Amino acid sequence: MLFLPEPTFKHGERPKIGVLLINLGTPESPTAPAVRKYLREFLWDPRVVEIPRALWWMILHGVILRTRPKQSALKYAKIWTKDGSPLKVHTQKQARLIKGFMGEKLQPPIQVEYGMRYGAPSIEDGLTKLKQAGCTRILALPLYPQYAASTTATAFDALSSALAKVRHQPELRWVKHFHDHPLYIQAIATTVQEYWASNGRPSKLLMSFHGLPKISLERGDPYHCECQKTARLIGEALGLRPEHYLVTFQSRFGKAEWLKPYTIETMQKLGKEKVKRLDVICPGFVSDCLETLEEIAIENKAAFLQAGGGEFNYIPCLNERPQWIQALTQIVRENLVGWLPGESDTATLQAQVDASKARATAIGAKQ
Question: Which of the four pLDDT bands, split at 50, 70 and 90, describes residue 12?
């Protein structure tokens, strides 16, 4: 096996810290070929679709990849921006803002990169950039608030595969989830409160999370429970009673039973009940993407209105809101405890680095 090239090693350097933000991914363009390439990688992941490989290969290549790319490309085209995919654009900005925010507080500044589980730039690309920057300690932070095997775990699988190609592996830390982190909850609550301050309050608040097959819950995946906890904490932060908000699950795929209630069916039900105003948030996503901008803000809105509902409002994801960037930065700092030298440690650490360099020079090491 050939290992990836290593950056030039220098004796006596301080340990450098890198942060790798991880998100799901996106096609490179809103076209059928690009979507087909993306879906081929995404849907072939055994953590995403838990069907025997031989059977699933025939279904995927014989049916899904022949029909779904064209349909999905039309949906992506509705939400595509001049800068590209919204998910990619927001993730790029989040990485840049966190790097700037951390750089104001720490010296030397922490390196921040991002990688996508599917598509480009890959997780391996992000890892390589951090290695090239000299990072010997890396914090991996999947941008999924709630843990699921089909999202968080598969991101770890990809990072592990990338590390298998590395000769000089870095120290690694991993953020499993942040579904109940107080600052994440408050950032969402503030987003909703500010929207209501300008637009008034709705008849109902609906919180839609991405769905999973029900069997994942039965097999021990904690995702459903973490979604419920997130929703409860948001409701409490907003001062809502349980009857004032709903929790639903969207993006059902295939014929198997998924986590219920389904968002689309709930939209139709609320429309038939003549709900005067429905506000919707998606706390399982920290960045707006196809599932929020097209599925919720277009498809589900139409279902609600066509069924007889009144006003429909989609409240955007956290994206680059300052309170969210501060919350995300705090999550990073909390997970770097022990790696970040305090001000009182700086002189001692520098002395240790200088001594190490001197010893290496004394025995003839190249600098």
Answer: low
Q: Are 183 and 331 in contact (CB under 8 A)?
A: yes
What the block records as the tokens of 134 is 């000299």
Query: 6-15, 212-221, 345-354: which has the highest mean pLDDT?
Result: 212-221
Q: What are the pLDDT digits (tens) for 204-231? A: 999 999 999 999 999 999 999 999 999 9
Alpha helix locations (H) across the chain? 32-44, 53-59, 65-79, 86-103, 123-132, 154-163, 182-199, 214-218, 223-237, 263-272, 290, 301-306, 322-334, 346-362
Q: DSSP string of 72-139?
A: HHHHHHHH-BTTB-HHHHHHHHHHHHHHHHHHTT-SSPPEEEEEEEESSSBHHHHHHHHHHTTEEEEE
Q: Which of 45, 49, 28, 46 is nearest to 37 (CA)?
A: 28
Reported for 78-84, long-range contacts at CB under 8 A and 24+ positions apart, including other chains, are 78/293, 78/294, 78/298, 79/289, 79/290, 79/293, 79/294, 80/29, 80/30
pTM for the whole structure = 0.90
Residue 134 φ/ψ region, left for φ over 0, alpha for ψ in the -120 to 50 degree band, beta for the rest: left
What is the predicted pLDDT for the residue at 362?
A: 47
- Cα 319 to its chain centre, rounded Å, is 11
DSSP letter, residue 242? G
| DSSP reduced 3-state for 349 | helix
User: Tokens 């059902």, residue?
Assistant: 252
What 8-state DSSP symbol labels residue 258? B
Q: Are 336 and 328 in contact (CB under 8 A)?
A: no
Residue 154: closest CA among 23, 317, 18, 301: 23
**Is the Cα torsion angle 53, 59, 61, 65 positive or negative in sign?**
negative
Count of Cβ atoms closer than 10 Å to residue 48 Cβ: 18
Q: What is the pLDDT of residues 165-191, one digit of tens each?
A: 999 999 999 999 999 999 999 999 999
- pLDDT higher than threshold 60 for residue 351: no
